[in-house]
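Example for tutorial group B:
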């Protein structure tokens, strides 16, 4: 049975800019029913592994996605997937938390801990020092939070997943399970746009709007895209893939966006070296103090900003 069912017409008024652009540019709207399930070891392995590979991008291979997927599926009562066609279908989104101290001998968890120590040492020494201190003791436990979804999933599905995970952590702790976290380590993605690339995107958006200049209705429909194109450029040109990351970053003790360790494949290097637009995707890691109730609080902030469908 699903945990909870949420209906979305993909036309949420409080959606983030990235989601609204995707929806507003369509000629027609489609109603989609999202169902929330526990991770299912009998069905979800391949889809979850793909989502994790999407999350860690080209660094995924060195982080042992098979072992990480198996670990997630070994705790099916903590974590949520979202599907649209029943329990036997593939999940389109995943949200879960893993105890890094409890599973420190797991091949993937060990690789991820060393990986995060390495990238923070290279790009943010104070962050590295904090992580090293947390990983070298056993009293305070760190929860590794993994949240990933397909690109066309609306942000409104995220707050309910936070509330569900907060409840599951609370219930697990009540049963004596090891989910008492002092810190939460969120892994995510971001992308960088040069000023030239931003100009190209703005020109494309302007070109798409011109044929509709005489239609007041269509002008209103494309307004969110216009607002996005006129947003102030971040000083570093880095944008989150997931709009809720801005809320996480504000709550974080440390936040780092970093270039992936593994080199780009030769064909991608060649593409980006020419005058061809391609996203410069980067990793992001954020450390937030707290445990299950902090997850609930963050979900509440997201619900207030984005709504829940």
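The residue assignment follows.
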């Amino acid at each position: 049975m699903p945990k909870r069912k949420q209906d979305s017409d993909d036309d949420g008024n409080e959606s983030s800019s990235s989601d609204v652009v995707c929806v507003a540019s369509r000629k027609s709207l489609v109603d989609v029913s999202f169902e929330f399930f526990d991770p299912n070891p009998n069905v979800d392995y391949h889809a979850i592994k793909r989502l994790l590979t999407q999350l860690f991008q080209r660094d995924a291979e060195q982080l042992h996605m098979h072992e990480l997927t198996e670990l997630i599926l070994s705790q099916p009562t903590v974590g949520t997937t979202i599907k649209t066609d029943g329990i036997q279908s593939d999940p389109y989104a995943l949200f879960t938390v893993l105890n890094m101290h409890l599973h420190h001998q797991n091949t993937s968890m060990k690789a991820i801990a060393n990986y995060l120590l390495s990238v923070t040492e290279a790009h943010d020494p104070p962050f590295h020092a904090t992580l090293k201190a947390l990983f070298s003791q056993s009293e305070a436990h760190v929860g590794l939070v993994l949240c990933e979804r397909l690109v066309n999933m609306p942000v409104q599905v995220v707050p309910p997943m936070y509330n569900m995970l907060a409840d599951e952590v609370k219930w697990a702790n009540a049963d004596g399970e090891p989910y008492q976290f002092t810190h939460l380590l969120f892994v995510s993605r971001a992308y960088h746009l040069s000023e030239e690339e931003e100009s190209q995107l703005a020109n494309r958006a302007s070109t798409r709007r011109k044929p509709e200049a005489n239609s007041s209705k269509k002008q209103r429909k494309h307004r969110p895209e216009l607002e996005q194109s006129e947003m102030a450029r971040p000083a570093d040109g880095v944008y989150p893939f997931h709009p809720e990351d801005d809320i996480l970053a504000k709550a974080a003790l440390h936040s780092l966006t970093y270039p992936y360790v593994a080199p780009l494949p030769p064909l991608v290097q060649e593409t980006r070296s020419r005058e061809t637009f391609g996203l410069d995707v980067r990793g992001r890691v954020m450390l937030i103090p707290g445990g299950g109730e902090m997850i609930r609080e963050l979900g509440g902030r997201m619900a207030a900003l984005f709504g829940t469908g």
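Residues 96-194+234-307 form one domain. Compare this with the pattern of hydrophobic and polar residues in the output above.
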